[in-house]
Each structure stands twice: as C-alpha cells, then as structure tokens.
Amino acid sequence: MAFTAALFAPTMVASLAPSLAHAHATLEQGQASINSYYKAVMRIPHGCDGQATLKVRITVPEGMVSAKPMPKPGWELETVKGDYENTYTLHGREITSGVKEIVWTGQLEDDHYDEFVFQARLADTLPVGETVYIPTVQECMKGEVAWIEIPAEGQDPHALAHPAPGLKIAAAEGGDGHGAGHDHGASHGDHGMEIIKVGDLEIDQPYARAAPPNAPVSAGYMVIRNTGAEGDRLVGGSVDFADHLEVHEMKMDGDVMKMRELSDGLEIPAGGEVVLKPGGFHIMFMKMKEQLKPGETRKVTLEFEKAGTVELELPVRDMKGGHGSHDHSGHSKSN
C-alpha cells in the first residue's frame, strides 16, 4: 500500500476546479534515495478556477525529517512544528520532532507559475520502491485547490482529479536499501560524521577520491548548505598534498563531457544547498604531490567569500567500479 495513504481519505477533493485540469501540482524531482537530503521543488501551475493563489500549504510526511523551507521574496513564511511518530537518528543525535507543515502566504496570479521549495532528510525507514505523497493545498479568496488525493493500491495516480505530488523512494546508492550501506556519492556520505559549520554555512559528508601513484589530479566532494539570508560563494582554498586546488564543474556539452574551472567561484544560495559530486560540481586537487590512499584522512582548507576559511578532514575513498568513478584526464577542459 502506498505510504501515507491512510492520512487522507481518497474521497476528499478540491472545492474549486483548477483552470487547467491536466496541470497538477508536481515535484521537480520525482525520485530520491533514503539517507539523502532531498530538495523538494513544488511546482504550482495555476490558481483556483481563475482566482489568484494566496497561500500554498505543504504537509511534510512522516520520514522526511529536519525539514527547512526556503523563503520566497514577497511571501510570508511560517512553519508548524510537532512530534514525529517515530524517533530518528540524524548525524549521531536522536530527533523526535520537527517541521510538519509549511505555509507560504502571498499572491500568485492564476495565469502565473511559481515554485515553492523546502529541504528534508529522507530517513532510512521510508519504504524503498514505494511512493511517499506530499499533500499540497492552494488557498484562494473563495475556496481552494487541494492536491491531496492518494491512489489506492494498484490505482493509477493519473486517474485522480487532484493527486498529491508523489516522491518515489529509492535505495541508498551503494547500500542495501535499509540504510546499512555507505554510498560513494556526496549526497549520502559517512554516517555519524559531524557537520562542519563556518558562518551561516554547513558542510556535510566531505570526502576525497583515491588516486593512484603519480596521478596528476584528484577530486573532493561534499554537501554545502547555506542557512543564512544571504548567498555566499566558495572561492578557493589550499592543501598540502597538491600544488593547489580549484573549484570545477563538469557537464555535458552535446555528446562530450566537459570540465571547466569556476574562476568566479561556486555560488551557495541563501537558504539552499549545493552538492559537490562526481560528474557535477567538485573540488580539483591539481599537480598532486602524494598518492591518496583509501582509508586515509586528508586535511583541506576551503575559503568562502563571506564565511571565511574553514579546515576539513576528508576521508579518502576508493571509487573504482563505483557509480562515481570518472577520469578527469579524459574530458575536455574549457574556461
């Protein structure tokens, strides 16, 4: 049976029909792994039968813990906190309560589109292979559109008039689907590692890629979250096992994967996070002086435009054969 289905009766419907029956409230990313931080981007495509949306109300389902909403310019933001049904462990500490509901109050005209964002940790108790539903309600001057219908077991969600946006739960990458395994990607990291804080920034799950003898480069990955009201920027840093470090981005350009140095640094948006991972943003260690061996820990100093400098300890991982394995030397580089 679909997770959280018991929370909402399937007979509940919106009190006003949407102006476009086929345009539902949806999530930008419809799948995510347990033991990861998920950025939920809720897309609101229209108002209530021609009326402007004045409130967007999102219910955070059980198992999505430590939820933090992103403020929106011109909108008031409030949260409703409460006790979880279960006790969760997050970064070595137990948590029993958190944000249960998020409400943005403002005005979104019927013929306009917007996105409402929050972040949450997906607990390893969530049902792998099933869908978690995130009930979302648009309140207007006269009535509302309530995207809260949960499909019955075996029912096609597209058959519902007002389906709740759904998130398919995947196993932790590199794990066994129950949170026991470790993943090679930056979105999961080492369980029990402390979050490093500098200014308004939080650095989570840092690690470095092992490098063979005489390798000219290697890479570092992590999650950087900005809890402040102003954006910041990763502009550089230093290491003792390489000549210098650079902030890079890898992305597809047609059929070619290209890498470029971010000469102006990497933006960390206010209230958001940036994931440094294989195949995306990352730190490059240039002109390596020493081999990085699996199981070692290496120190790296990072420099941020506003938060200043911070020293990290990066566990070294062997990524051969893993999903994060890639060879920088084989890609084009452009600036």
UniProtKB/TrEMBL annotation:
Quick one: where's region Disordered?
A: 316-335
What InterPro entries does the annotation carry? LpqE-like, Lxx211020-like, PCuAC_sf, UCP037139, YcnI-copper_dom, YcnI-like_sf
- Superkingdom of the source? Bacteria
| Pfam families per the UniProt record, alphabetical | DUF1775, PCuAC
Q: Does the entry feature the keyword rRNA-binding, yes or no? A: no
Q: Which CDD domains match?
A: YcnI_like (cd08545)
> Signal sequence span per UniProt?
1-23
Query: Would I find Oxidoreductase among this entry's keywords?
Result: no
Q: Which UniProt keywords apply?
A: Signal
Every copy of the YncI copper-binding domain together lies at: 24-169
Q: What is this protein called?
A: DUF1775 domain-containing protein
Species of origin reads Flavimaribacter sediminis
Q: What is the lineage of its organism?
A: Bacteria, Pseudomonadati, Pseudomonadota, Alphaproteobacteria, Hyphomicrobiales
